Structures are given as structure tokens and as C-alpha cells.
Amino acid sequence: MKNSRIIGFHKLDLSERRAIIREALGSAEIEDLDSLLDSGGLDSKRALSIVENVIGIYSLPFGVAMNFTINGKDRLVPMVVEEPSVIAASSNAAKMVRQGGGFHAQMEESLIVAQVELRSVRDIAAARQAIADDTEEVLRVAREAVPGLVRRGGGPKRLTIRELAPDHLVVHIAVDACDAMGANLANMVAEATGPLLARLAQAEVGLRILSNLSDERLVRVKAKIPFEALHKDAELGASAARAIEAASIFAERDPYRATTHNKGIMNGVDSVLLATGNDYRAVEAGAHAFAAKSGRYLPLATWRTREDGLFGSLEMPISVGVVGGTLRVHHAARFSLRLAEIESARDLAMLAGAAGLASNLAALRALSMEGILRGHMALHARSLASFVGAEPDEVEAVAARITFGNDFSELAARAALVAEREARQRST
Ligand code: MEV
């Protein structure tokens, strides 16, 4: 994708849009794009192999967000969502971020955690020591449980022990799932190491399952937006930036607001996850748990104004895969990965994170801009009223008439002054 800035895409009809998508796919072109996009990528027969008690297929709109540049590369962003404005707003926000150099995303490590719970531990210190002494053996057993993953360069990487109560431990084994989301792989590791860990700790083995609090799978996305990208009038743009910062501070101080703020982020993230066949419930659970990890529920993205623009920063766990799972059977999900030129699970996680930050920016700008524009127009109406000759005691009333008429021309302002004076005369 050379250029994700496809001007006027929203004005095209369905077949014109598909022609552009076909062109964007280039050599990766899909023969029967129309039937793929009309069917939604899944039929009832295939659905039978995914879940139980199937009676049919349930559809949702599938769109593409424009204007995204992430780490210097343009991307079309596939989105599946039922809420109006999410795709348009993300595209709009991405256009603003583009003017500041695009999104900068990173994901340092991408590990999924397998948890082994140990109950009725007789001697916590001895149990810890025994597990620490035999860590290599535990990791060897863990690796044996996922040989294919180890061959691909992934697999169990490290072990940590957490104490929950004086007789209650949990062992975490962090697993590099490569390009898979890794839930099944983590479960296999937990299952396989459970008996050995219980023996070492002289404890009863409890639950053995992944944790969805994927805090070793964090995506970080940053964006800079020049003031004039927020509004063509740079002064209004600077006011918008300050208002967005104030909205961020509100979310940083109030969990009620932070929840809605984060919902706006998930609008973008989930839309990408749905389009690519990923487990959005897992990411939702992880995101909100991460947001509350300090003991207080906090926003996943924050905004600050500096001299040269508005700066946004998102940090959240995004645990996704680009192989296995739904992708095996869902044509539209595979198509989404091709459309966005996704090369790895990390790549997809960073794309979803950028879509989340874009969604958040769009929401905060819309919420803040309304007040700014109202304030700005009220000021403008007052100066216009004075300009056309309103006396100090007439200014407020004439400005109100101008604002009510929503016509800020000199002619309308003169008419408002005449109307106000006539009304005053009538009432005396
Ligand atoms: C609506 O889906 C999302 C918003 O409420 C997010 C926000 O308030 O920041 C607009």
C-alpha cells in the first residue's frame, strides 16, 4: 500500500470502492472479491465447524479506514463494526496524525502467560526454592508440550512465582506464541507443567490456564498532531488541543469518565479485531484489567499539549494472532490481513493500537470542539454586533440573534441590529 490517503473514497459507490480495493491488493488480488464481500466470508456449512447449535450466519458491516501511516508505512485498516461514525472518525483522526508524521508504534515483547495455580502449599519458602532450583526442568517440560512452536522459534521463555496467600501460589510461564494468539498453546504448557510444579511445591495443583491480563504483550502507540491539523485556524486548533488535554486529565482523575474514554479506544481496536477474526473478548478483558492494574481504573491513552502540537500516547495489552483459530475458516478475516498487509501478530497488534488511538482522538476532538466552536462563534457574534453599530447595552441581545440565525455575515448582523431595535421600541 503506497498511499492510504484515498481522497473521496466515502463518496464512491460500492462497486467503485471495491475497484479501488482490488487495485490496492495488486498482486495479492482475490478472484471473487464480490462474492467474498457479499457473503461476509463465511457460510453456514463452515460455521458448523466453528461453534455448536448453528442455525445460520450473522452479518455486520465491513469497512476500511483510510489515511493511516504507521511506522512510516501506509495501511488500509479493515474494520467490522455496527456503530456509525467509528470508521469515518478514525479515518479523520488518522488524517490529522498523518500531518504530524503518522503513528509510531512498538511492541517490545509478545508473550502470553500460562498460569498454574498451586493450593494448600505447606511451606511457601520451600516451595519457592524448589521451583526456583528446578526452573530449567519445568521449562524443559513446558517446551516438550509445544514442540512445533519451539521449532518455529517460540515457546516457553521464563517462569515467575507469585504468592497469593500464605498457602497459595501461582506460577506464570511466559510463552512466545509467535504469530498465534496462543491461548491453546499456553493452556497446553499449563497442563503439562502442572503435575511437576505441584510435586516440587508439595501442593495441590489448581487451575491450569492462560491469563488474559497480557501485560507482557503491550502495544505502545504515539502520535503528534500539529495544531493546524486539529483546525484550519491554528489558534482554534491550539484551543482544541488544550481541550483534548483537559478531557484526558478528566479521564485520568475519574474512573467513570475513563471507562467511556476507553470505550472510545475499544471502538477502534475491536473493529480491527473483528475484521481479522480475533478474540475481542480476550483483548477487552485484558485491556480493562490493565487499565485498573494500579488499583485505580485509568485511561489507556493520554494527551498533552506542547508548544509544537498535541501529543497522544497509548499503552495497552493486545493479544492477537494471524494464524490458526477463526482464520482457518473465515475468508473475510484472511482477506483483512492481506488488505492491511499484516506480516505478523505484532504488526496486527500495532495496527489495532493505532486504530484505538485514532478513535480516541476523534471522540475527544468532537466532544471538545463543540464547546470551543460555540464559544468562538459567541465571541465572533459579539464583535460583529459592535462592528455594525450595536451600543454596549445592545451587544449581547444582537449577538444572540446573530448566533440564533447562524448567519455571521455583516448583512445578517445589520438585520439583527434592526430587529433588536424594533423589538425594543415595540416593548416601550
Ligand atoms: C461512543 O461510542 C464513544 C465515545 O463515548 C467515547 C468518548 O466519550 O470518549 C464518544
Describe this structure in words.
The protein contains 16 helices and ten strands. The protein is an alpha+beta fold. The chain has three domains: 9-104 and 218-365, Alpha-Beta Complex (3-hydroxy-3-methylglutaryl-coenzyme A Reductase, Chain A, domain 2), CATH 3.90.770.10; 111-211, Alpha-Beta Plaits, CATH 3.30.70; 375-427. The protein starts with 13 loop residues before the first helix and ends with a helix. The relative contact order is 0.13. The model has no long low-confidence stretch (mean pLDDT 95). (R)-mevalonate (MEV) is lined by residues 83, 260-261, 263-264, 267, 363-364, 367.
Low-pLDDT runs of 5+ residues are: none
- Per CATH, which architecture of the largest domain? Alpha-Beta Complex
- N-to-C SSE series? HHHEEHEEHHHEEHEEHHHHEEHHHH
State the domain count: 3
Residues in helix, %: 40-55%
Helix-strand makeup class: alpha+beta
Estimate what percentage of residues fall within beta strands: 15-25%
How many extended strands?
Answer: 10
Structure summarized in a few sentences:
With 428 residues, the chain is of the alpha+beta class. Helices cover 52% and strands 19% of the residues. The protein is elongated and about 95 Å long.
List keywords for this structure.
four-stranded antiparallel beta sheet; alpha+beta; 428 residues; 3-hydroxy-3-methylglutaryl-coenzyme A Reductase, Chain A, domain 2; binds (R)-mevalonate; Alpha-Beta Plaits
